[in-house]
């Protein structure tokens, strides 16, 4: 790291701390030549490769902006959108790749958006997955209903299983 004061090509790390949400590291450095101190902030870069082949830096704001359109008129707050964008970024960073295809970002958005609001999910999926007909919507709705009903039945079975008494069973004390 070059010293910003004397341009010496080296510096010594005096202190390191994680900042904010742990996605960056703040380092306090000292130049061995002029002895002045300065701070650097280090983050792992994440780039998006678009369909055209152009690469640009990842942006949580673009994620939230794209999802915001699908959430118009829905009971979704700005905090919800910020959390969704954070979850998507964490998912993408956990892949370990520095370059992410734009299509993969859309796939990473679908899961958290589905949990947040099913109508917004359908809106986003219809554009993202290029629904061409009513059958595409019907198929997506059928999957949503099956998953929701499956979760509801599973929860009911778990509750029923806790209180069910099997004939002939005895409890050990």
TrEMBL record:
Keyword match Nucleotide-binding: yes
Top-level lineage group: Bacteria
UniProt-annotated stretches for the region Disordered: 154-173
Gene Ontology MF annotations: ATP binding; DNA binding; zinc ion binding
Keyword Zinc-finger attached: yes
Key words of the record: ATP-binding, DNA-binding, Metal-binding, Nucleotide-binding, Repressor, Transcription, Transcription regulation, Zinc, Zinc-finger
Cofactors demanded by this protein: Zn(2+)
Listed GO biological process terms: negative regulation of DNA-templated transcription
Co-factor: note: Binds 1 zinc ion.
Domain (ATP-cone) ranges: 46-136
Zinc finger (unnamed) boundaries: 3-34
Function as written in the Swiss-Prot or TrEMBL entry: Negatively regulates transcription of bacterial ribonucleotide reductase nrd genes and operons by binding to NrdR-boxes.
Family, similarity comment: Belongs to the NrdR family.
Listed name of the protein: Transcriptional repressor NrdR
Taxonomic classification: Bacteria, Bacillati, Actinomycetota, Actinomycetes, Micrococcales
């Amino acid at each position: 790291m070059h010293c910003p004061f004397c341009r010496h090509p080296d510096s010594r790390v005096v202190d390191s701390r994680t900042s904010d949400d742990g996605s960056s590291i703040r380092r306090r450095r000292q130049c061995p030549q002029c002895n002045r101190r300065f701070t650097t902030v280090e983050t792992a870069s994440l780039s998006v490769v678009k369909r055209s082949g152009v690469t640009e830096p990842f942006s949580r704001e673009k994620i939230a902006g794209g999802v915001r359109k699908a959430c118009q008129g829905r009971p979704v707050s700005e905090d919800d959108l910020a959390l969704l964008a954070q979850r998507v970024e964490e998912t993408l960073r956990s892949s370990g790749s520095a370059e992410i295809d734009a299509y993969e970002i859309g796939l990473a958005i679908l899961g958290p958006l589905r949990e947040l609001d099913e109508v917004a999910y359908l809106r986003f999926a219809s554009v993202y997955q290029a629904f061409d007909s009513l059958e595409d919507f019907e198929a997506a709705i059928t999957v949503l209903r099956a998953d929701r009903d499956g979760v509801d039945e599973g929860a009911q079975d778990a509750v029923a299983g806790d209180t069910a008494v099997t004939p002939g069973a005895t409890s050990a004390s």
